[in-house]
Design brief:
The complex is a heterodimer of chains A (about 110) and B (about 110).
Chain A: E1 5-7, E2 10-13, E3 19-24, E4 31-37, E5 44-50, E6 53-57, E7 64-68, E8 74-78, E9 87-94, E10 102-103, E11 107-111
Parallel strand pairs in A: 2-11
Antiparallel strand pairs in A: 1-3, 3-8, 4-5, 4-9, 5-6, 7-8, 9-10, 9-11
Chain B: E1 3-7, E2 10-14, E3 19-26, E4 33-38, E5 44-50, E6 56-58, E7 64-68, E8 73-78, E9 87-94, E10 102-104, E11 108-113
Parallel strand pairs in B: 2-11
Antiparallel strand pairs in B: 1-3, 3-8, 4-5, 4-9, 6-7, 7-8, 9-10, 9-11
Classes of the chains: A mainly beta (about 110), B mainly beta (about 110).
C-alpha cells in the first residue's frame, strides 16, 4: 500500500470521447508524475507536475493534459480518444522531484 | 539521451534456483538506476535503487543488483526463487532533466516453476 490512490480502476470509452483520470497523492508529496503503460510494454512518461506547475513532458500530443491542485491531487485529461490510448495509466507521487516515486495501482482505460 | 534494454521478455526458473534478470542502460551522465516489480493488475513497487556509493545494492524480498559502469549493466539477482516472485520486472534509469523522470525498459516476466 503506497498511499497513492487512483480512480476509477477501470473504464471504457468510445473513440473520440474525452476522459479524466484522477490521482490522490501520498500526504506531503508535492510532485506527481503520470505514465502510460501499453500492454506488454514498460511505462512511458507523460508529464510531471511540481507544486501545481508542469515540470517536464514526454513525447505525448497536446490532447494529453493535466492539472495538479493545491492539495496536490492530480488529474490526467485525454481528449479525442484514439484506440491506441488503451493502456494502464499510472500515477506516481514523490516528496520532491528527485526522491522516490510511489505508484498507484493504475487506471485501466479501454477505448473502443 | 538515456535508454534501458532488458534482455529476455520472459525468464523461467525452478523454485529455489538462481534468478538473474538482465538490464543494460545507456546514459551520458552517471545514472540513477532502479528495479521495479509489478504484480498482475497492480502498480509498480520499488525493489531497489542505485544512486551513488556502493555498487552492490540490496533491496526488498532478497533481491540485489550490481552497478557495473564498465559494462553499463545493472542486473537483478536473487539466490533462490520463490513462487511469490512470479511477476513482471522493470529496470529503469532516471532522466537527468529537471523532472528526474523514469525511463523504463520493456520488462521481463519471471515465471517460477514448482
Amino acid at each position: 500500500e503506497t498511499g497513492v490512490t487512483q480512480s476509477p480502476t477501470h473504464l471504457i470509452k468510445t473513440r473520440g470521447q474525452q476522459v479524466t483520470l484522477r490521482c490522490s497523492s501520498q500526504s506531503g508529496h508535492n510532485t506527481v508524475s503520470w505514465y502510460q503503460q501499453a500492454l506488454g510494454q514498460g511505462p512511458q512518461f507523460i508529464f510531471q507536475y511540481y507544486r501545481e506547475e508542469e515540470n517536464g513532458r514526454g513525447n505525448f500530443p497536446p490532447r494529453f493534459s493535466g492539472l495538479q491542485f493545491p492539495n496536490y491531487s492530480s488529474e490526467l485529461n485525454v481528449n479525442a480518444l484514439e484506440l491506441d490510448d488503451s493502456a494502464l495509466y499510472l500515477c506516481a507521487s514523490s516528496l520532491d522531484v528527485n526522491t522516490e516515486a510511489f505508484f498507484g495501482q493504475g487506471t485501466r482505460l479501454t477505448v473502443v | 539521451a538515456q535508454s534501458v534494454t532488458q534482455l529476455g521478455s520472459h525468464v523461467s526458473v525452478s523454485e529455489g534456483a538462481l534468478v538473474l534478470l538482465r538490464c543494460n542502460y545507456s546514459s551520458s551522465v552517471p545514472p540513477y538506476l532502479f528495479w521495479y516489480v509489478q504484480y498482475p493488475n497492480q502498480g509498480l513497487q520499488l525493489l531497489l535503487k542505485y544512486t551513488t556509493g556502493a555498487t552492490l545494492v540490496k533491496g526488498i524480498n532478497g533481491f540485489e543488483a550490481e552497478f557495473k559502469k564498465s559494462e553499463t549493466s545493472f542486473h537483478l539477482t536473487k539466490p533462490s526463487a520463490h513462487m511469490s516472485d512470479a511477476a513482471e520486472y522493470f529496470c529503469a534509469v532516471s532522466g537527468m532533466d529537471s523532472s528526474y523522470k523514469l525511463i523504463f525498459g520493456s520488462g521481463t516476466r519471471l515465471l517460477v516453476r514448482p
